[in-house]
């Protein structure tokens, strides 16, 4: 009697959650807190970052954040970010999602749209073209935009780096960071189905609850059952 092997059910695709925000908004802290909570719920999770996250992209990260690429202008910076992202997506993000892993990423395409597009005045057509090449149809299931007043964010960034020199973007002036915050708020407003604007001007635990609520409402919200009237 012939035996027919049972086919395995397809592996559910993981969820892709990105975190965005200005300098000192608390992205790294909140990503780790969310990862801990998801892992506790038995969901396989990895954390990663941009620029960086893969071997090739980490090399480009050093070049970008050191400020060495600044002299070549925002268009060149955009191309370098795109090169790093292409390696990151192909080597880390897509394989993890295909295996059912949740990917929590510190910055993604919105950062390029804001830093190089809105503030660097790079042609939006060029940015969109680079996105088509580097990420294709990949899109975050949810983008958490952490919002803090500029003064608070800059104070946090200063405390975090201590005596170290500011990186390429931390070293920009207050006006730059005000425009940065406005640009992120516009993104959240323009794409509410994907983005959640979270008030991050609070202690980490409070912000973590706000992040969890945003994730629950965007990814797990279900219609509440109707109450039945009692005779």
From TrEMBL:
Matching Gene3D superfamilies, A to Z? P-loop containing nucleotide triphosphate hydrolases
Q: Which reaction does it catalyse?
A: dTMP + ATP = dTDP + ADP
The alphabetical list of record keywords is: ATP-binding, Kinase, Nucleotide biosynthesis, Nucleotide-binding, Transferase
Q: Which Pfam families match?
A: Thymidylate_kin
Listed under GO cellular component are: cytosol
Give GO MF terms, alphabetically: ATP binding; dTMP kinase activity
PROSITE patterns with a match to the protein in the record = THYMIDYLATE_KINASE
Region named Disordered = 1-26
UniProt: ATP binding residues: 21-28
- Extract one GO BP annotation from the record: dUDP biosynthetic process
Q: Does the keyword Disulfide bond apply?
A: no
What's the EC number here?
2.7.4.9
Question: Taking every annotated instance into account, which residue ranges of this chain make up the domain Thymidylate kinase-like?
Answer: 19-209
The record describes the protein's role as: Phosphorylation of dTMP to form dTDP in both de novo and salvage pathways of dTTP synthesis.
Family, as annotated: Belongs to the thymidylate kinase family.
Which protein is depicted? Thymidylate kinase
Q: Which organism is it from?
A: Afipia clevelandensis ATCC 49720
């Amino acid at each position: 009697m012939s035996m027919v092997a049972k086919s395995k059910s397809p592996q559910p695709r993981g969820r892709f959650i990105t975190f965005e925000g200005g300098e000192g908004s608390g992205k790294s802290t909140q990503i780790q807190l969310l990862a801990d909570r998801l892992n506790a719920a038995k969901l396989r999770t990895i954390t990663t970052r941009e620029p960086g996250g893969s071997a090739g992209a980490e090399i480009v990260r050093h070049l970008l954040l050191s400020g060495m690429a600044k002299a070549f202008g925002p268009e060149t910076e955009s191309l370098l970010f795109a090169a790093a992202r292409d390696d990151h997506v192909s080597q880390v993000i897509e394989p993890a999602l295909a295996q059912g892993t949740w990917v929590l990423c510190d910055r993604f395409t919105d950062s390029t749209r804001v830093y190089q597009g809105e503030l660097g005045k790079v042609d939006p057509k060029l940015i969109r073209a680079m996105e088509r090449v580097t990420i294709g149809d990949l899109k975050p299931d949810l983008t958490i935009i952490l919002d803090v007043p500029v003064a608070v964010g800059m104070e946090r960034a200063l405390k975090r780096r201590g005596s170290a020199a500011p990186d390429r973007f931390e070293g920009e002036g207050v006006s730059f960071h005000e425009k940065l915050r406005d640009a992120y708020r516009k993104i959240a407003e323009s794409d509410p189905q994907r983005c959640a604007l979270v008030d991050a001007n609070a202690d980490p635990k409070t912000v973590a609850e706000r992040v969890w609520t945003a994730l629950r409402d965007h990814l797990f919200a279900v219609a509440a059952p109707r109450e039945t009237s009692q005779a």
